[in-house]
Amino acid sequence: MSLVTKLMRAPCVPITFAFLLGILIAAHLPCALLLVMSGSVLSLALIVPRTLRRHTASPALLGLWICCGMLRLIVWHAHPTERLPTVLSDAPQLVRLHGIVRDDPVELFEREALDIETCILDVRHAEIDGVWRPIAGRVRATIQQPSVPLAYGDEVLVQGRWSRVPSPGNPGQYDWRAALARQHVHGRLRIAPTHRVTVLRHRQGRWWLAAIFRLHHRWEQLIQGLADPRDVGLWRSLLLGERVAMDDALKQAFVETGTIHLLVISGFNVGLIAGLFELCFRLIGLPWRWRLLLSAIGLGGYCVLTGLQPPVARATLMTWIVFGAWALDRVISWPNTLAVAALVIVWVNPTQLFDPGFQLSFGAVASLLIFTTRWYAWLEPRLGWLHPSWLRRYSSLSLVATSAIWIGLSPILAWYFHLVAPVSMLANLLLAPQLSALISLGTALLMFGTLWAPLVRWGRGILALLLKATLCSVSWCHAIPGGYWFVGHPPSLLLLGYYGLLGLTMCRGRLGLSRRHVFACWMVGLIAWGSSVFVFRVLNARWLRVDVLDVGHGDCIIVRTPTGQTVVVDAGSQQPGRFRVIPFLRYEGVSSIDALVLTHTDEDHLGGAIPILQTMRVKRLLTNGVRGDTISAREVLRLADARHVEQTILAAGDVVSREGDVTIEVLHPPRDLVPDASAKSNDNSVVLKVTKGGVSILLSGDIEERGLPWLLRSGAPLRSTVLKVPHHGSRLHQVGEEFFNAVQPRIAILSVGWVHHLPSSEILQALERTGAARYLTRDDGAISLRTDGSRLNITTFRTRRHDVLQVHNPPSSTNDQLSQHID
């Protein structure tokens, strides 16, 4: 029986696809048009004569399900909590809120004196303009150094600063706004140690949820005695699904070997827990239907215990459907089961369709259904030399399963994570049995240790051995040369072509195609892809690209020359460096950095260099020669020494790079630094000028009032087309006005966040007098500059602006400077 025939005999498959199509249509069309379309289809379905509907039952039914999908998304967006963004602003504002904690607070990490917890708060009232008003909404509360312990169901009165959840500011950055919106969470609340948190009443939630959260706390305490302190975070991740502090090198090894999914609670864990429940109830001697019922209840409790994470909920739902089919003595149709699970999930929450986890989970199961059976039948006989037979069966099934998932999901993983890891097939083959034993034994010890704690200590030794073997396997796979590599963001056409050719290969028999025809199609596809890559590189060979990233309060500028060199000027602080700068570089396909320039030793410029040095190849580290005394500054130098990075001191007159008509030259500081300023001060920041043809870009770092006079008197060619405004737009008084007049920029870029109330009104007025067009990373997101020497294209990521500046023929008035083309 062919795959197509199986799908046609699974009635829920076309219904689910129709419902998903309705959600996709609703996500891209206005609400009014959707209502008209839905009403028209429903009316046609009702007025079509019964005799005609008998012949057109399937199209009419699918049309109704498409309407259901559209209407379900409309209803979702009509939820009362969806109106919260209209009350909030992007700028954090001081507020007092009354609400109820709707989940158990999670501790993010512990670093010396700094503790941070997060929870979701159901807001009931807010004090706005001094008046308490009822309001419906959910905010993600971050509590720094919590002085009052919070728990699920606590009714609280809190003070803090709230704002909208920010949208991503850079390509490749994770979209927290969309992820939280899928939970009806549209605001964030930051509660500093100076703010107040008051618990009004306890136990305002559901009693059974409170009981499960108490069990969760009990398991956390047991884990403290189960593992060494350095492994507690790993165990809490494996057994409870918590995202707590973990060794960065270890986490990176799991990510780059394609096994990070084994560290989070997912379908893998749910299957193990279901088997554990079945084994326990079988040993007790319960009838099989009772075993199914109690196992289903136990899985539901485990799902809540691990925080109702979407991957666990999806796997639990699918397991319940399978248990129900077994209990009713029904033959299981796996395509039908998969479709029902997807339909229920998107019916409850239609926005889950846009969740990468949803797509990867169901894509993985679909890949297994499509490929595993036929590949296993081919491979297992060819491993006849492998004994005993159970080892041959396990090896065959594991190789086939990991290969199926890798082939089915590699383009999607490259799309979301920019990683291709062939070593994941070997790593999963080795780690799956080890982690199965770890999770099964660890969960069993926690379950029985809840009743008798000494049992946990008895199993500690064997768990430590299993964990050590697992970590050794990960490290060994991670060290295999060529086991993984990072790729840039693939174009949509590449994904469509890949899956089109894959579908053509799987259905070649029904299409009457021979293997030679299929091979020819693949070769044509490869040639077309290779040709497009070559043409793209040729067309971009004349462009200099400079990207000013949104890293909050800080600086990070990525310079890429026509010949492919990459120069990173500053890297923001540590968090933006890890979660904004590196994702951008991965997104753009940058695998190595030719030069990392750190203009000075402030944390908001230097901290992000730590994750860059940890995860990427850096050829040269360029600084002003001043050694900082902060922890971050010392760590940067330690990493550079450990990785044998060439270190160079920059001073005025040096050249960072010169190739063709592209030059990156150093204008400041002087060789002996600014005499009347501290060596570590902003006035000794490195100032760079990037030039291509008639276009120049001045990167002024954080230079201030003492350094600017030296720069002005140096005779350096300051006049530039684009100016990255010094020190995030801080006040510069009269010398700032002189500096702007010397530069005469036509474009002014300010790298600012929401702290420190920057840029100052004085700087904005001075820039207005120069006639420069202003761009702020806080508002516009990443600002991309592309130039061929005579034309400058400016594109913003968040606001989607696209401006073109002609440099070879300067306009006579500032109003004619920009010819704007809004996408």
Could you characterize the architecture of this molecule?
- There is one protein chain.
- The protein is of the alpha/beta class.
- It folds into 5 domains: 75 residues; 126 residues, OB fold (Dihydrolipoamide Acetyltransferase, E2P), CATH 2.40.50.140; 202 residues, no CATH class; 48 residues; 277 residues, 4-Layer Sandwich (Metallo-beta-lactamase, Chain A).
- The protein contains 29 helices and 28 strands.
- The strands form 5 sheets. It has a 10-stranded mixed beta sheet with strand order 17-16-14-12-11-10-25-26-27-28, with no helix packed on it. A 7-stranded mixed beta sheet has the order 18-19-20-21-22-23-24.
- Helix 10 crosses helix 16 and helix 22 crosses helix 24.
- The chain is globular, with a radius of gyration of 30 Å.
- It starts with a helix and ends with a strand.
- 35% of the residues are buried.
- The C terminus is likely disordered.
